[in-house]
Amino acid sequence: MTEAEIEGRLLAHRRLLARLVAALDPQARDDLTLWLAERSVLQDGQEDPGVLPDDSAALSLSLADELAEIRHLAEARRRD
Questions:
Q1: Residue 71 burial class via C-beta count within 10 angstroms: exposed 0-12, middle 13-18, buried 19 and up
Q2: Which pLDDT score, from 0 to 100, does residue 46 have?
Q3: Cα–Cα distance between 65 and 70 in angstroms, integer?
Q4: Half-sphere exposure (Cβ direction) of 80: Cα atoms closer than 13 Å
Q5: Contact 42, 61 (CB under 8 A)
Q6: Would you state the pLDDT for residue 56?
Q7: In terms of domain of life, where is this protein from (predicted)?
Q8: 29-56 pLDDT, tens per residue?
Q9: Which residues of 40-61 are buried (b: 16+ CB within 10 A; e: fewer)?
Q10: Separation CA 41–CA 4 (nearest Å)
Q11: Whole-angstrom Cα distance, residue 12 to residue 53?
């Protein structure tokens, strides 16, 4: 699979998940949005924000970024 194919699949999953979150009843949506928000900020204990993450932190950072993207898309979809 090419890099472009992987990126396309990731975007499709992200958009589908955001749509599903936005379609939930208000209480479930708020609960899931809070869960996403709590996990979209990596708590790594890093005191120096200029330090670049090593490979072991790359997965955690990517996960946090992706959850933030899904939350932002779901919130934007809900406002539409």
A1: buried
A2: 53
A3: 9
A4: 10
A5: yes
A6: 67
A7: Bacteria
A8: 999 999 999 998 876 555 455 566 677 6
A9: bebeeeeeeeeeeeeeeeeeee
A10: 27
A11: 27
Q: Give residues with Cβ within 8 angstroms of 36, minimum separation 6.
A: 21, 67, 68, 70, 71, 74
* pLDDT, tens digit (0-9, with 9 covering 90-100), for 10-32: 999 999 999 999 999 999 999 99
Q: State percent of the chain over pLDDT 90.
A: 64
Query: DSSP state, 53?
Result: P
Amino acid in position 41? V
| Residue 52: predicted pLDDT | 63
Instruction: Report domain extents, the chain.
Output: 3-40+57-79
Other beta carbons within 10 Å of 11: 11
Phi, psi for residue 56 in degrees, rounded to 5:
-70, -25
What is the rounded distance in angstroms from the CA atom of residue 6 to the CA atom of residue 12? 10
